[in-house]
Structure formats: C-alpha cells, structure tokens
Specification:
The structure is a single chain. By secondary structure, the protein is mainly alpha-helical. It contains four helices and no strands.
C-alpha cells in the first residue's frame, strides 16, 4: 500500500497510528488505513475508527486475527 503524502501543517495534528489503534481497539495496520483514508482530521478519523471497529465486531473479527492453516 502506498502511503499518503503527509506534508503540510494539517498532518502535524494527525493521529499517531499507535495511539489511534489503542483508542479504537484496532491493529496498527488498520489504524494506518483509517487515518490515511480519512485525512488528518481527528474528528473524521474518530468517526471512521468507531465505524470500522463496529464493523469488525459485527463480522466477528478480533483485533488479532487467527492465522489460517495451509
């Protein structure tokens, strides 16, 4: 996945992925996807993080997905 260009003053106020992941019960990878998809707005990211976590719960996925056996 290619990273979003995080230059500019707006991104200085963006969430740290680890902080965001802990706040919403997500993995760091999931947090990065939510942050990059919603831009530097903490309000938008919080809304998206809540929705993403609820969707994971609804579909029975945990924070630490089970490894599939081959």
């Amino acid at each position: 996945m290619q990273s979003v260009n995080r230059t500019g003053d707006q991104w200085n106020q963006a969430y740290d992925p680890v902080e965001f992941a802990e706040k919403h019960g997500l993995t760091v990878r999931q947090a990065i996807v939510v942050i990059e998809s919603n831009g530097p707005s903490r309000e938008k990211c919080d809304q998206a993080g809540h929705a993403f976590a609820a969707a994971l719960k609804q579909f029975g996925r945990s924070r630490h997905p089970r490894k599939r056996s081959a």
